[in-house]
Each structure stands twice: as structure tokens, then as C-alpha cells.
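pasting for ref
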Amino acid sequence: MPASGDLFDPSLIVFAALAVFVIWKLRSVLGMRVDRDTPPPPTRFGPRGPAPAAVAAAPGVAPIAEAPSRPSGAERWEGVAEKGVASAWTGLDAVAASDPNFDGKSFVGGARRAYELIVTAFAKGDRETLKPLLAQDVFDGFSAEIARREQQGESMETAVVAVDSATVDAARAIAGRNEVTVRFVVRLMSVRRDQAGETIDGGQTRKVVERWTFARDAKASDPNWKLVATQTED
């Protein structure tokens, strides 16, 4: 037991050194504590500067971009109307001016589909399909021919073998109404049979050239065009 006047104990030095070593070891393994309320300093690579100009858009959100300008002049109706057909090119310009949403290539594609649908529906006598696709007077003419076949007990089968070409032949915008005439060169297989099922005519593939005129009110909410006239070339 040490004397009462001796207040220094050498073992304290050993314990103090051991405590310092343990604390240093823990800090080197766990790292410094960061309070939750204090955000960590930002990590940067390279010098600090303004944000990049191009930023990836969020999923499902398209980046805002300037709309591409439409072709003009000779390029505008390339593949839509034959070159040199002034009535078609100037007419299409007038149609596009009255209806900014008009797209020539989309129109011709829709006209090709309408041709096949109308020809097939007419052969089948499908008035329900024809009704929304035709102007009233054209529908009346088609319906009258269907009625005649029905009265005679005749049937008709028509298949569009191929649409070799479909080009705008004429176009005009007049009094808020747009009209576009498409010249179709097609190959058809058509057979007309009597009540007994005997072939009256047809049965062979033949080339047909027709001009169909479609019309639409430029301000109408209905985007569909209707067939208003047909003409067959000899």
C-alpha cells in the first residue's frame, strides 16, 4: 500500500496509453461520425461549373425539340404526285394551306387502304362498311347496283391482287372543302356468278386504271375523307 503522501501511480500511464490506442483503432475502422442533420460535403469530379445543356428526359417524357420543317417546293410532294402535273402540285399546296395537318404521304397510304376496302365491300354487298366511306350520292349508286344483283340472284367476288401505283392526279381547296383525286393502277381478280353459281363474267386478273376523288371539310372534326366521285379509264 503506497504512502498517503504519494499520489502518483505508474500503472495509470499504462491504462491511459491503452485507452488512446483503442480509441484510435476504432476511428480508423469505423470512420468519423456524421450527424444526420448535417449533409455530407458534395463530391465533385473536375472543376465546378454550370450544369450541362443536354439532360436526359424522364421515362415517358419526350424531350422538347423544335418541330422539323416540312419540305417545300419540288420536295414537298415527292412520291405523292407525279412531277410535271401542275394541277396536282399547286392543288396540294392549296389543300395543305387550308389544312395544316394534311400530310400527302399519309393521305395516299389511306387512299390505297380505302380503295381495297371499298372494292371488297361493294363486291360483298356490305352496305354497312360502305356507308361511312362514301358521299351520299355515291353510296346511293353503289347501293342500287348491289340491290340489282340481289334481285337477280347474282353474286360477286373481287380480290385486289395488287395496287401497282396510287398517285395524286389533281387537288383543290374551294369554299372550305378539300378535294384530292387519286389515280389508281391496280390488278383485280373479279368473278360474277348467277343464281345457279355459274360464272357470268370475269375469272381472270385484269388491269384497271381509275380516278377516285376524295373530299373533306377542312374544319371538320372528323378526320376521315369520303369518296365523292369515280372515273374509269378505257
